[in-house]
Amino acid sequence: MNLNDPGTTLLLVLLSILLVVWSLKSKRPQKGRLPPGPPALPIIGNLFQLDLKAPHKSLIKLSEQYGPIFTFWFSGYPAVVMCGFEIVKEALIERGHDFSGRYLFPILKKISNGYGIAFSSGERWKQLRRFSLSTLRNFGMGKKCIEERIQEEAQFLVTAIRNKKGSPFTPDFLVRCAASNIICSIVFGDRFEYDDKKFHTLLELIAENIKILSSPWVQMYNNFPKIMDFMPGPHKKIIQNIADLNIFLNERIRSHKESLQKDLARDYIDSFLIKMDEEKHKPDSEFIHENLLISVLNLFLAGTETSSTTLRWAIQILAKYPQIQEKIHREIDEVIGSCRRPAIEDRVKLPYTDAVIHEVQRYIDLAPMNLPHMATSDIEFRGYLIPKGTFVVPVLSSVLKADSQWETPDSFNPNHFLDENGCFKKSESFMAFSAGKRACLGESLARMELFLFLTTLLQNFVFNPVIDRKDIDTTAVMSGILVVPHVYKFCAISR
Ligand code: HEM
Questions:
Q1: Is residue 433 included in any domain, yes or no?
Q2: Which atom number of ligand 1 is nearest to the Cα of residue 92?
Q3: Is the C or the N end of the chain the one with fewer CB within 10 Å?
Q4: Nearest CA to ligand 1 atom 19
Q5: What CA–CA distance (Å, rounded) separates 413 from 93?
Q6: 7 assigned to some structural domain
Q7: Distances (CA, A) of 218 to 57, 319, 415
Q8: Could you give the C-alpha distances from 227 to 78, 143, 224, in angstroms and in order?
Q9: How many domains does the chain have?
Q10: How far, in Å, from the CA of 323 to the mean position of ligand 1?
Q11: Protein residue whose Cα sits closest to atom 22 of ligand 1
């Protein structure tokens, strides 16, 4: 390098300025002993090592070199990444409290400002979680009354699909309507007709947001928010869509307020409003409008997109593997027949069907990176000191696809959940809903939905692909917050 060359000198000066600016601006913790990781560059950290379309795959690859715990630098902030069953279990279950914070990426901050059940931390989160869990249970989560609601909704879904008369259709929208109606019944107290225009618009806004949240655009926003704020692109659409959803939700909250009877909560919104009234003289109460609005938004989004995306994948996988679909048909015919509706108590008698549902969840790996966690205090963990507020990534994909835990981790294999006698076999490594204190709040509801919707659909139909089965691609189009499946048409033939 020739230091007398003015070009080289200018480059060195610019690089030095960038380094100084980066070291001043980056939130590199002053204290703590973070685990070692790949060498990071100024400004962009380790971003150049991340496949923005499937970031979890890059992290798992790096863990082969740096071990089960390592530090990965995003632009200006470090993440402690954990890969593999043992360490994820230790962090989420044994040290559940220590890692129960929610790290707010810039996009999550913009959407929620730290309000609401899914994106809050500390005392606010504890209160909202306790309240939401008990309210969801009061309105039937995991109980008979919600089972009946799902059974009824499954029949609406069957009718809508039967109306297609066996011609090719994309099940995505109808399945999304059905799943969403379950959480709508609990949160708003009613369901929507599948041809309701407003419902269509809401579901489109949700689906579009999940797609954008899972895209490279959001990765860019989370790393360079100040620059991206000035750039056009889909990340801007998310904010607009949330604003539109909030208009609808605020309208629902207002009409609930007008018809509220304090001794008779009809749904989640009523229960929250009653709690707000009880705590209105408490200056530090968490039961305030912002937490109500964002919690309802969280439940609506999480309750709509997760179960419905899983069901879409399930239909796709069963259409690709007709022998697996036939085996479920046979089991349903033997145990339930065609005259009565499938019920939750049938699950123990349908071990193969149950195994297929679990395997769908394991194989699709719906939330591969999990939602972002955060250290709640300065934490000693495996010989390192992780400072309070550090972003922690317990990579669920590294558990659901671990070589050490599954016989054929990368292929669809219901035997992962069956013993040698064909009985259902539980697995500790089944962490599709995450684990520990912050695990999915809607797990028991989602499990009921998946079982009842899928058995009802297969009691009534055979799903055949329109294209050649072997051309159905069961890998994700992209993955970020959720994995997004390819879109295919199917023919649902009545049985
Ligand atoms: C197949 C269906 C579903 C899957 C795979 C799933 C998965 C997950 C995962 C991985 C998390 C993050 C857990 C963590 O941070 O460690 C989560 C959180 C959450 N889920 Fe689900 N979920 C599903 C369905 C539902 C449904 C139906 C609801 C509606 C009630 C729901 C509500 C939530 C909420 C509110 C949170 C945030 C909990 C918190 O931050 O404390 N989920 N879910």
A1: yes
A2: 16
A3: N
A4: 440
A5: 27
A6: no
A7: 17, 32, 37
A8: 19, 48, 6
A9: 1
A10: 31
A11: 440
DSSP state of 90: I
What is the pLDDT tens value at each position of the chain, 495 positions in all? 444 554 444 444 444 444 444 444 444 444 579 999 999 998 889 999 998 888 999 999 999 999 999 999 988 889 999 999 999 999 999 999 999 999 998 899 988 999 999 999 999 999 999 999 999 998 887 777 899 999 999 999 999 999 999 999 999 999 999 999 999 999 999 899 999 999 999 999 998 888 888 778 887 888 888 888 888 888 889 889 999 999 999 999 999 999 999 888 999 999 999 999 999 999 999 999 999 999 999 999 999 999 999 999 999 999 999 999 999 999 999 999 999 999 999 999 999 999 999 999 999 999 999 999 999 999 999 999 999 999 999 999 999 999 999 999 999 999 999 999 999 999 999 999 999 999 999 999 999 999 999 999 999 999 999 999 999 999 988 887 888 899 999 999 999
**Is 92 part of a structural domain of the chain?**
yes
For residue 475, the CA-to-ligand 1 centroid distance in Å is 22
Is the CB of 191 within 6 Å of ligand 1? no
- CB of 117 within 6 A of ligand 1: the answer is yes
- And the tokens for 19? 């380094």
Cβ-contact 432, 366 below 8 angstroms: yes
Residue 9 falls inside a structural domain? no
Q: In whole angstroms, what is the distance from residue 423 CA to residue 147 CA?
A: 24
Helix (H) or strand (E) segment spanning residue 463: strand 461-465
Q: Residue 6: CB partners within 8 Å, gap ≥ 6?
A: none
Pairing of strands 69-73, 78-82: antiparallel
Pocket of ligand 1, candidates 440, 479, 482: which has the most ligand atoms within 8 Å of its Cβ, to mutate?
Answer: 440
Cα distances from 466 to residues 161, 173, 325, 492, in angstroms, run: 16, 18, 16, 10
What b-and-e string marks burial along 34-60, b requiring 16 or more CB atoms within 10 Å of the CB? bbebeebebbbbbbebbebbbbbbbbb
CATH number of the domain that residue 212 is part of: 1.10.630.10
Q: What is residue 91's DSSP assignment?
A: I
